[in-house]
Design brief:
alpha+beta, 18 helices, disordered N terminus, binds adenosine monophosphate
Length: 511
């Protein structure tokens, strides 16, 4: 175990636990490449998906080393740390917590040693049978030996237990998983993962590895994106196609819902562990994904511009200037301006060095964050009737602050237009939308929201318009945050960020 600066962690097996995250994941198998640096740049390009912690695990074929810490990718890693991470296989992760507190113990990749191999894993998504899985590995009360409290750690413990002779648990017959390439699964982590995956419910886009092989797997609904790319001498797996562009990989295909791939010197082997029933997250198009990413072949930027056009058609306004809330709503603001004929301009300057305010866990920080993040361009705004386009209203914090800011800067009227429907239902599949009580649209009518944010008028794009902009049929999308139709039923007992943290949950309930 190496501990540069006391920060390096080679998690000693049992110390990791299960988190639930909507995050960025990246994996690479590439002999001859500096896989730590490729992972660094891959994570850097996925930083928008999670800003709480970052980590990279590297294997040289005989040993896995994990380095992770709290903070942004560029805060966690520097040249000297990356130089200690030598090998030809890596998995990497940046975290946005949805199950398990935002603490070092829940940073990823998680790590477990089994009797035959070691395992490092990164997870984007959120499981919905965490307690059941935890009971399989003896850990519903944290008793599986670690301090981590995430669903990801439970998953890692499950894979490790089923791979380990000593801790073997009955996860079913791995031979039952159809092998897309007709090759048998290798004993060890590969067979263990194939045996365990059919028991895992909820959202998971996974990258994991043992000492010799890189793996990637996606749940049967494919809630979160996961793509495969080709390097000159290797393979990359990443949350978004933009990460492939940035590391010089070419897009090959998406990892299919219900598919696990194994990547090593034999190439890419594909296994199917569940029947695919695609329900990709519609919020990826709204906010989560980068505009330069494509999902199911559709450019996210193009989808956002189209939503803006449809928003203008559904909610016109008498105004002088259309502005966006940079940067996530800029494409929709451009679309609104194109369709309405109202000029587009810049009205807010964003400090790009402040993290996404929503991602920071406490409400106090969120409120201050909005002020830190945006400053109005007074000359552009004064005396103008504004259309302000934003991508979403969740709690209403951002719009309340922005409308007040624009009025202070002299705006004559502020007409707010939102390029997604009202968020009315919590997400259990990887976005920390928390409880209904916290959602503005869970408790207020559109006019009450308008009043609470102080706007002259407010309009949300319709769900059919948003769906149309994705170019996917409605039944291929998870739209639960907008319409409450969850693709999978989530038991009450499986909800809550602090599922495996009874003390934190109790303190929050009192508070
Ligand atoms: P709120 O301020 O609570 O109404 O949240 C809406 C604002 O947060 C919008 O400006 C969005 O750009 C941003 N946002 C929406 N969803 C997310 C998310 N899942 N993570 C981070 N930021 C988000």
């Amino acid at each position: 175990m190496i501990k540069p600066d006391g920060r390096l962690s080679l998690d000693p097996g049992s110390q990791d636990q299960p988190p639930r995250d909507a995050c960025g994941v990246f994996g690479v198998w590439a002999p001859g490449e500096d896989v730590a640096k490729l992972s660094y740049y891959g994570l850097y390009s996925l930083q928008h998906r999670g800003q709480e912690s970052a980590g990279i695990a590297v294997s040289d074929g005989s040993r896995i080393v994990v380095y992770k810490d709290m903070g942004l990718v560029a805060q966690v890693f520097d040249e000297s740390v990356l130089n200690t991470l030598r090998g030809h296989i890596a998995v990497a992760h940046c975290r946005y917590s949805t199950t398990g507190s935002s603490v070092w113990e829940n940073a990823q990749p998680t790590f477990r040693a089994t009797s035959s191999a070691s395992l490092a894993l990164g997870h984007n998504g959120n499981l919905i049978n965490t307690l059941e899985l935890a009971s399989l590995v003896g850990g519903e009360d944290g008793g599986f030996g670690g301090r981590a409290t995430s669903d990801t750690d439970v998953l890692t413990a499950l894979f490790a237990a089923s791979a380990s002779d000593a801790g073997a648990i009955d996860t079913g017959d791995p031979g039952a998983a159809a092998n897309g390439t007709g090759q048998p699964a290798e004993p060890g982590v590969e067979r263990a993962a194939l045996a365990a995956l059919p028991r895992v419910q909820g959202a998971f886009s996974l990258v994991f590895m043992d000492e010799r092989t890189l793996y990637a797997a996606r749940d049967q609904h494919g809630f979160r994106p996961l793509v495969l790319g080709r390097l000159a001498a290797g393979w990359v797996v990443a949350s978004e196609t933009a990460a492939l562009d940035i590391v010089g990989a070419t897009f090959v295909r998406e990892i299919e819902p219900g598919e696990m791939v194994a990547i090593d010197e034999r190439g890419v082997r594909s296994f199917r562990f569940a029947v695919p029933a695609p329900r990709g997250c519609i919020f990826e198009y709204v906010y989560l994904a980068r505009p330069d990413t494509a999902i199911a072949g559709r450019s996210v930027q193009a989808a956002r511009v189209e939503v803006g056009r449809l928003l203008a058609a559904g909610h016109p306004a008498e105004a002088d200037l259309v502005i966006g809330v940079p940067e996530s709503s800029t494409p929709a603001a451009i679309g609104y301006a194109q369709a309405s004929g109202i000029p587009y301009g810049q009205g807010l300057v964003k400090n790009s060095y402040v993290g996404r305010t929503f991602i920071q866990p406490s409400q106090t920080i969120r409120q201050r964050g909005v002020r830190l993040k945006y400053n109005p361009l007074r000359d552009a705004i004064a005396g103008q009737r504004l259309v302000v386009v934003d991508d979403s209203i969740v709690r209403g914090t951002t719009q309340r602050a922005i409308v007040a800011m624009l009025r202070e800067a002299g705006a004559a009227e502020v007409h707010v237009r939102i390029s997604s429907p009202p968020v009315m239902w919590p997400c259990f599949f990887g976005i920390d939308f928390a409880s209904r009580a916290e959602l503005a649209a869970g408790n207020m009518t559109v006019d009450e929201i308008r009043e609470s944010i102080g706007a002259d008028s407010l309009g949300f794009v319709s769900l059919p318009s948003l769906i149309a902009a994705t170019t996917l049929p409605a039944d291929r999308l998870c739209r639960a945050c907008f319409d409450g139709e969850y693709p999978v039923t989530v038991a009450d007992g499986d909800r809550g960020k602090h599922l495996l943290e009874p003390a934190v949950a109790a303190a929050e309930a009192v508070g």
